[in-house]
Amino acid sequence: MASKRIWGWYFFDWASQPYSTLLLTFTFGPYFAEVASAKFLGDGMDQAAANAAAQTYWTTGQTLAGVLIACLAPILGAVADGSGRRMPWIWGFSALYVLGSWALWFLSPVQPDLFMAMVWFGLGLIGMEFATIFTNSLMPDLTSDADMGKVSGAGSAWGYLGGILALILMLTLFNENGVTGKTLIGIPPILGLDAALREGTRAVGPFTAIWYVIFMVPFFLWVREGRRRKPVGLGRSLRDLWALILSLRDRQSLGAHLLSSMLYRDALNALYGIGGIYASGVLGWSITQIGIFGIIAAISAAFFTWVGGIADSARGPKPVIVVSMWVLIGVCLVVAGLSREAFFGLPLAAGSALPDIVFYLCGCAIGAAGGTLQAASRTMMVFHTTPDRATEAFGLYALSGKATTYLGTMGIALFTLISGSARLGIAIPLIALFILGMVFLAWVKPMGERS
Questions:
Q1: How far apart (Å, rounded) are the C-alpha atoms in residues 76 and 134?
Q2: pLDDT tens, 280-310?
Q3: Which residues face 338 on adjacent strands?
Q4: How far apart are CA 402 and CA 408, in angstroms?
Q5: Which of 59, 214, 230, 406 is the most buried (most CB within 10 A)?
Q6: Is 113 among the domain residues?
């Protein structure tokens, strides 16, 4: 039975998951695509060009936020480790999370300000990513190495369950269908929200902010930092960071893990970020359909991440990472061959449900493999650090996850523009990143530096 401290740590995943589930993937992302496509269509583009431009705008915004995160993450991690305190940083970045998500309400379908929407989204994303770095850095003090995989997997699974509940509430009470103006259960958006102005869907921003505020309470009540180290100055903290970076020349397993995960996590994040837009632009799904897809994917993620955590503790994180990547490569291949009109070149009858069924199955696979991949990767990172240097290490881990963010999101943008196909634009760069990640993983020791 997990201690109250571990349960408090789990609640961060529960509280923060809606930023990925609701905003990045299944509600705000597709809504942004609809609004941006309509704007570009009104500016004189044809439908295909407008869809591609919307996808490019969205991915470029995420890329810029990722670059900022990559530059600051290891520095702030080193400073936090030097100060001996982590909780104040979690408070500060939580404030950015809440502010950024709340402000997404202001993206109206009438004269939309796409630029400011991306600014607010990026601010919230920065808050979420940095809060995650600091909460992950608490892991070495939570439990023993033998149970680290179980704790990591269970925390991620708990987060996915929170995402499922949040998505169900949004679909049934808020998200209006663009045609009927009704939610999934056939009622107008609650609280008197105006369906014509898409206020039900826009409420996803304030909803995400309020959700986070409520469910971070157990975290702040139950989680306490481990033994504090004596604070050191800024100069010493930065010298320690530089020493860690230089040490990668001799710490082959850590260097290989950072390089491998840099590639495959970038591909996974790009796949998460573009999935809803793909469903909207290529398959013509409504936000409600995409939301149902999200629920199915999250249920799959919750179950398989929990199972993956057990496998992680039993066999180590490396085999879990390998299997997860092969599944995601398979998903990318399927996406490349799937459209509303054909499946791998075989024509489909008008109105065929096969593309929808296949993409729902892809959602299950993305949820299952993506969740286990992330949980096992952070377990592997714990096995390459110590409690007193964990924030610095996870900051470097965040840098590795963001340093090549342009390879995923900008790779999608580039291949989409060159090919004129959203399907090929997604599949080609992501498959390449997963395969390269698999190559570098060969130099990672099965139990990291605990081996």
A1: 10
A2: 766 777 767 777 787 788 888 889 999 988 9
A3: 343
A4: 10
A5: 59
A6: yes
**Percent of the chain scoring above 70 in pLDDT:** 90
Note whether 262 and 403 are within 8 A (CB).
Answer: yes
Nearest to 204 by CA among 143, 271, 124: 124
Looking at the structure of the chain, the number of domains it has is: 1
* Helix (H/G/I), strand (E/B), else coil: 442: coil
Mean pLDDT for all residues in the chain: 83
CB atoms within 10 A of CB 11: 23
User: Which domain range does residue 341 map to?
Assistant: 4-223+235-450
In a domain, 230, yes or no: no
* d(C-alpha 128, C-alpha 125), whole Å: 5
Of 197 and 294, more confident: 197
Please tell me the number of Cα atoms within 13 Å of 258 on its side-chain side.
Answer: 24
User: In the prediction, which pLDDT does 320 show?
Assistant: 92
Could you tell me if residue 340 is inside a domain? yes
Q: Is residue 229 a part of any domain in this protein?
A: no
CATH code for position 126: 1.20.1250.20
- Higher confidence at residue 172 or residue 391? 172
User: Out of 35-44, 177-186, 345-354, which region has the weakest mean confidence (pLDDT)?
Assistant: 345-354
83-95 burial: b if 16+ Cβ within 10 Å, else e:
bebbbebbeebbe
The angle subtended at Cα 52 by Cα 47 and Cα 54, nearest 5°, is 95
What is the CA angle 374-377-379, rounded to 5? Answer: 115
Nearest-angstrom CA–CA distance, 356 and 333: 16
The rounded distance, in Å, linking the Cα atoms of 26 and 259 is 29
- pTM confidence score: 0.81
